[in-house]
């Protein structure tokens, strides 16, 4: 049973980590776009509709992970820092560089987030295949058991099936969210004028986003 328990624990850890880091990331995205919008509205900038659409997408993503965080994970210990920093980055990027600042910021963030979600989907696909194979083996093994051992085996199979359902739900939602993030990235990339300033800005934003992901996965 040690090997079985270890497998169950590792899958739960994967789910816990994915939900926590994605929850933190979507909270940050909502605050980043809110920071952009605050400056757009203050200076009556005309490109507000696109930013509001992106913000609406991120709120949808955030609400999903909020619905999962209490029962399957926990919030990152430094979410308040991410929210404050994300809003400030969004607001100052737009304030200092106007629409180009918004677009280079969005391009940088969504480039990293898109790859992050792709990596998660690849991992989830492997874990789902492993879980399905394990369920089949355990169902076959349970046929040979009696009494308390059979009850324990059936409980374990039920827990595996519950994890599998959640993994498939995560797979479906993250796939949809990836489409939104890639749409944001591509739109921003097209509209961002590439020059030394926007290139440095984008690379700086990408570095911060990767750092935020790395930390949120751990704490």
Automatic annotation (TrEMBL):
<dbReference type="InterPro" id="IPR009078">
    <property type="entry name" value="Ferritin-like_SF"/>
</dbReference>
<dbReference type="InterPro" id="IPR011566">
    <property type="entry name" value="Ubq_synth_Coq7"/>
</dbReference>
<dbReference type="Pfam" id="PF03232">
    <property type="entry name" value="COQ7"/>
</dbReference>
<dbReference type="GO" id="GO:0006744">
    <property type="term" value="P:ubiquinone biosynthetic process"/>
</dbReference>
<keyword id="KW-0560">Oxidoreductase</keyword>
<comment type="pathway">
    <text>Cofactor biosynthesis; ubiquinone biosynthesis.</text>
</comment>
<dbReference type="GO" id="GO:0008682">
    <property type="term" value="F:3-demethoxyubiquinol 3-hydroxylase activity"/>
</dbReference>
<keyword id="KW-0503">Monooxygenase</keyword>
<dbReference type="GO" id="GO:0046872">
    <property type="term" value="F:metal ion binding"/>
</dbReference>
<keyword id="KW-0479">Metal-binding</keyword>
<keyword id="KW-0472">Membrane</keyword>
<keyword id="KW-0831">Ubiquinone biosynthesis</keyword>
<protein>
    <submittedName>
        <fullName>Putative ubiquinone biosynthesis protein</fullName>
    </submittedName>
</protein>
<keyword id="KW-0830">Ubiquinone</keyword>
<keyword id="KW-0408">Iron</keyword>
């Amino acid at each position: 049973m040690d090997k079985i328990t270890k497998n169950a624990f590792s899958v739960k850890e994967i789910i816990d980590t994915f939900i926590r880091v994605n929850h933190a990331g979507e909270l940050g995205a909502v605050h980043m776009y809110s920071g952009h919008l605050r400056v757009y509205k203050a200076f009556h900038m005309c490109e507000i509709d696109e930013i509001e659409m992106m913000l609406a997408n991120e709120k949808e993503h955030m609400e999903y992970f909020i619905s999962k965080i209490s029962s399957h994970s926990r919030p990152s210990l430094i979410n308040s820092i991410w929210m404050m920093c994300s809003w400030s980055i969004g607001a100052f990027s737009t304030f200092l560089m106007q629409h180009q600042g918004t677009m280079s910021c969005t391009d940088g963030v969504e480039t990293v987030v898109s790859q992050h979600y792709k990596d998660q989907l690849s991992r989830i696909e492997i874990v789902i295949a492993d879980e399905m194979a394990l369920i089949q083996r355990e169902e076959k093994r349970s046929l040979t058991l009696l009494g308390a051992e059979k009850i324990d085996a059936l409980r374990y199979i039920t827990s595996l099936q519950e994890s599998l359902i959640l993994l498939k739900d995560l797979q479906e939602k993250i796939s949809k969210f990836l489409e939104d993030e890639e749409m944001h990235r591509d739109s921003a990339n097209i509209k961002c004028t590439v020059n030394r300033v926007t290139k440095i800005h984008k690379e700086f934003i990408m570095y911060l986003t990767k750092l935020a992901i790395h930390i949120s996965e751990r704490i």
